[in-house]
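ok so dumb question maybe but i'm new to this and my supervisor (M.) told me to 'just get the structure for Kynurenine/alpha-aminoadipate aminotransferase, mitochondrial-like' and walked off. so i did the thing. is this what she meant?? sequence i used:
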Amino acid sequence: MECGAIQINAPPSLISLAVGMPNPDMFPFEEATVKLRNGKSLQISAKQMKTGLQYAPSPGVPAFRKVLCDMQKKIHNLTYEPEIFVTTGSQDGLSKTFEMCMNVNDYVLMEEPSYPGALGILKPYHPRVLALEGDRDGIKPESLRRALSLWKPSDAQTDADMPKILYVIPNGGNPTGTSLTYERKQEIYQIASDYDLLIIEDDPYYFLQFAEKPSPSFLSMDVDGRVMRFDSFSKVLSAGLRVGFMTGPKPLMQRIEYHIQVSLLHTSALAQILILELLKDIGHAGFMDHVTNVRNFYMSQKEKMIAAATKHLKGLAEWNEPTGGMFVWINVPGVKDTSKMISERALKKEVLLAPGNAFLADSTRPSSYVRASYSLASEVELDKHCGSAVKPCDHRSITSVC
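this is what came out, is it supposed to look like this??
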């Protein structure tokens, strides 16, 4: 039992007058039945409902954390009991980790373009972003070495101003759709070890890798506690339940726990119970079957998107075929800034794209890229609208109309 900062080993017979927890008998919810798409139903009993509606430990509902622990061990071939906290989506854990690690004007190593959610977290710290180059196989290790060339590995112990954080989206990158190869991960991890970098492995698209065999994670190769990993159920179970989880070295995770205790207290216990009961019902094998179906759906969507882009945009735009995730990163040669193209042309054609500058550390810089998402659009919609935003009118060049 925990009372404020006091840790108490409580016998079952203890009557507590210390905690400020409401009486669950006063909650109007009794139990619930949730119908699944496979025709089965999940029954949330009155006892489970009381657990789900009551305050929970800040790291997460214990039974749920145990399932997540077993999952991480199996998926990432871990030989130890990982430290895992449930977070309100992976964004929550990511935000708390950056807040824990960042000072104003600190250096941050990250691929550019990168996820706007991470850039938004960092913005108040006015970070000095060391932008890393990537290609269809993700971040180039030589780009990381070049960014660190101002320092020596030994400076990590003496120079407080040198970079200490490497932010990575290893699979199905947002916005690029690229995935790091295992060989590059190994090389990047070695560089991080040499320079004593903390690797922030933001991997919400892990289960949306299109390769037959998923690439091993940074977590799976971590031998000295330098990886903070962020997973999410948003892309495979539900975005609205807001349930993610983070895995990392105990000293840093303890700091995160303190932050959770004084901010949101804990992620929705009812959402945790709902996912827990689903995972108990289908088992690990059933969960892996489900994510395989999800992966196959997005791979099919990707193929439809690439077919539509090839049909309508060949010779007008450039792109690499995504290796995972939900996005295609499209370059429009001859267009200096796609923001104007989107606002003036794409919207008139009733299609919306994300402008490339939204994914840059300095969003005021122009970009010739757009991000197109294939997660929701039907094949007909993809074919109808894929080229309409950048396709030239009256056979004029793109430059002349944008």
